[in-house]
């Protein structure tokens, strides 16, 4: 892993590399993805079945039956049922606070202005299933849609060998999902974007995936809405010597075990802590079940940065704009106001990122690769749309008509001006 000091002569170059970690070279896969999209649009379900045989090695039915979902829910342990239900309630309670309401305003002329909030008719959720199964991702994507009032939710997930993780099936049952399908990759995105005989066309697609999924989402955007272009997971930790180095090491590794391309960063003004955390990481790594994945991530995508002071520590982490940001310090809340760019912020010694992944309440579908500079976490707002409301009475119309006609004439739009003028006579 990289061990950097902000005073190093080449530090700016190294920081630039870290900041560019989210650059996905989509150019190489775009022709492949476009071919898949075109084939799904042309041949629908037949194309999807061929993709399942080619990529996931199975010929099972596309649709996941409600029987499979209920059977899985009945079979999981009481502890897992309780955990799923606890996560459901906490995530739902949090997202209910994001609900926006339709509003009306009466101006000084008595005219009515406002905004109407309406859920989309149908949402498509992509739930990855490559290196691991993610029932938590299903909860995080489905619950905001349910809270928003979306009437129909469509779920697509890859099924290697035709099999789907039992806990994912159980979560589908708990959420009351009626339409779920065994299909992954770009084919799933194309199916939800354009529809097939089995899979209905949706209005918005959310959920993370590999580069083929990310590229497909980018290519169908405009025909449907999307949440964001999500890349590999990442974590950043700001810490001082009040933290336990073993805890920081574990939190960094919690992201490294996701994916070889996951990124883990520690920024601290303490070189003593930096060295202790590095030592802890290499002690823990060999004992992890996913040690091969985590080791590649740590060796190629991780960095420990020693800053000159805490002010620079915060500045550097804002530049990195990480997906998950832990402020692991006694005085963590003192720095909250100074954090400008982060997908989710975890404060204090007892708030590991893993809690946010499962059941703290906020969404774990977050902007990656520095896109926290302009993207927000997935939320209820991804599943609604807004319409403006305008109703002018004659008093309001008369008060505004002259200025409106002047602006229309200035833009050279005569019919605009005349559509107002005919009402003044």
TrEMBL record:
It catalyses: L-histidinol + 2 NAD(+) + H2O = L-histidine + 2 NADH + 3 H(+). PROSITE patterns: HISOL_DEHYDROGENASE. It comes from the Bacteria. One of its GO terms (cellular component) is cytosol. Its cofactor is Zn(2+). Keywords: Amino-acid biosynthesis, Histidine biosynthesis, Metal-binding, NAD, Oxidoreductase, Zinc. GO terms for biological process: L-histidine biosynthetic process. The active site is at 323 (proton acceptor), 324 (proton acceptor). Binds 1 zinc ion per subunit. Pathway: Amino-acid biosynthesis; L-histidine biosynthesis; L-histidine from 5-phospho-alpha-D-ribose 1-diphosphate: step 9/9. Its EC number is 1.1.1.23. Substrate binds at residues 233, 255, 258, 324, 357, 411, 416. One of its GO terms (molecular function) is histidinol dehydrogenase activity. Zn(2+) binds at residues 255, 258, 357, 416. Catalyzes the sequential NAD-dependent oxidations of L-histidinol to L-histidinaldehyde and then to L-histidine. HAMAP family: HisD (MF_01024). NCBIfam families: hisD. Belongs to the histidinol dehydrogenase family. This is Histidinol dehydrogenase. The gene is hisD.
């Amino acid at each position: 892993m990289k061990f950097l000091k902000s005073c190093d002569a080449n530090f700016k170059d190294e920081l630039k590399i870290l900041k560019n970690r989210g650059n996905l070279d989509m150019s190489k896969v775009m022709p492949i993805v476009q071919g898949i999209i075109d084939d799904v649009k042309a041949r629908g379900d037949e194309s999807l079945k061929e993709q399942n045989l080619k990529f996931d090695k199975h010929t099972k039915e596309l649709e996941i039956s409600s029987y499979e979902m209920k059977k899985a829910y009945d079979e999981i342990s009481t502890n897992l049922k309780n955990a799923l239900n606890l996560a459901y309630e906490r995530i739902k309670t949090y997202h209910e606070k994001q609900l926006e309401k339709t509003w009306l305003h009466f101006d000084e002329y008595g005219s009515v202005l406002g905004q109407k909030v309406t859920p989309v008719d149908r949402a498509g959720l992509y739930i990855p299933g490559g290196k691991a199964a993610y029932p938590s991702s299903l909860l995080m994507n489905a619950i905001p849609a349910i809270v928003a009032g979306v009437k129909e939710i469509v779920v697509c997930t890859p099924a290697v060998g035709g099999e789907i993780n039992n806990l994912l099936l159980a979560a589908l049952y708990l959420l009351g999902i009626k339409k779920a399908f065994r299909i992954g990759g770009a084919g799933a995105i194309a199916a939800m974007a354009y529809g097939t005989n089995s899979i209905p066309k949706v209005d918005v697609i959310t959920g993370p995936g590999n580069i083929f999924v990310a590229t497909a989402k980018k290519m169908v955007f405009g025909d449907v809405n999307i949440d964001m272009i999500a890349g590999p997971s990442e974590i950043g930790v700001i810490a001082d010597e009040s933290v336990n180095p073993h805890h920081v090491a574990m939190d960094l590794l919690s992201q490294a075990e996701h994916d070889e391309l996951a990124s883990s960063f520690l920024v601290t003004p303490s070189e003593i802590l930096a060295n202790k955390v590095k030592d802890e990481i290499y002690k823990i790594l060999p004992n992890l079940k996913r040690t091969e994945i985590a080791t590649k991530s740590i060796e190629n995508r991780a960095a420990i940065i020693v800053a000159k002071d805490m002010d620079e520590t915060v500045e550097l982490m804002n530049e990195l704009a990480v997906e998950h940001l832990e402020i692991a310090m006694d005085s963590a809340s003192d720095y909250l106001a100074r954090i400008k760019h982060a997908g989710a912020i975890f404060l204090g010694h007892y708030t590991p990122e893993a809690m946010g992944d499962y059941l703290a309440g906020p969404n774990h579908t977050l902007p990656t690769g520095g896109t926290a500079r302009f993207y927000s976490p997935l939320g209820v707002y991804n599943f609604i749309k807004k319409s403006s409301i305008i109703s002018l009475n004659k008093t309001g119309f008369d008060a505004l008509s002259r200025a409106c006609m002047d602006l229309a004439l200035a833009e050279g739009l005569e019919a605009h001006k005349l559509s107002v003028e005919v009402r003044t006579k």
